[in-house]
Amino acid sequence: MKQPLRILIVEDEPAIAELICVNLRHNGFQPVWAEDGSAAQRELDAVLPDAILLDWMLPEHSGLALARKWRSSARTRPVPILMLTARGDEADKVAGLDAGADDYITKPFSTKELLARLRAVLRRRAPEQASDTVAIGELVLDAATHRVSWRGRSLKTGPTEFRLLHYLMTNPERVHSRSQLLDKVWGDHVFIEERTVDVHVKRLRESLGPAAGRMIETVRGAGYRLAAQTAASAAA
Ligand code: CA
Fold it and tell me: How far is the CA of 93 from the centre of ligand 1 (A)?
């Protein structure tokens, strides 16, 4: 029998945590509840979950701070994070994505939406089938080992940025609209706004650094393109 996927729920309100746990269990997941950041950290140190549902408002460390911390650790970086937030503000959503969350869900949410978003982040986490290496200029991506390097120096990217870069590198020079990228990289994007693409492109550029980051060009009014020859390097 297939091992159920383990989902870590970081939520300080027992009623909400209980509701999520019951629903996840009903749908074949193995929920694990942590009521604060320290309990969640102990869980993560013991067993890595397949995904984390992270509440924004927590005692001590905020969900935002925890997302940032788990994204910066090599051990927890590959685990998708879905933020639970009572805040509907665009700025807060972007802050959550900037901190390293893969998606967010605004409270109150339906079980159906929670499951759909959770399945979507889990699908995106699934390793690329292709075990190939793509190289464009001095930027190299190894799909098998999930490594990215620039001029031989290895770079750190989050799971969504990796998938985005992989898609752009395997389809270089072409302009991709935000909705095309959502289709190809996110797959199941019913609940994802186009603005999300911009946030992940920004984060991807940051992980690539100034030189390689320039390869990802913004084409005004159209979308994004990965160019082997950047305007800057062509002029040099
Ligand atoms: Ca809370």
Answer: 16
Nearest to 212 by CA among 198, 227, 197, 224: 227
How much distance in Å is there from the Cα of 11 to the middle of ligand 1?
6
Single pTM value for the model: 0.59
Q: Token pair 């996110």 is at which residue?
A: 186
What CATH class does 6-123 carry?
alpha beta
- How close is the Cα of 12 to the center of ligand 1, in Å? 5
Interval 5-54: pLDDT, tens: 999 999 999 999 999 999 999 999 999 999 999 999 999 998 889 999 99
Rounded distance between C-alpha atoms, residue 24 and residue 6, angstroms? 10
Among the listed residues 148, 156, 10, 164, the one whose alpha carbon sits nearest the alpha carbon of residue 75: 156
pLDDT, one tens digit per residue, over 56-66 is: 989 888 999 99
Ligand 1 centre distance from Cα of residue 52 (Å): 15
CATH dotted code for 133-235: 1.10.10.10
What's the token pair of residue 102?
């893969």
d(CA 81, CA 104): 8
Would you list the domain boundaries of the chain?
A: 6-123, 133-235
Q: Please name the amino acid found at residue 123.
A: R
3-state SS class at 38: helix
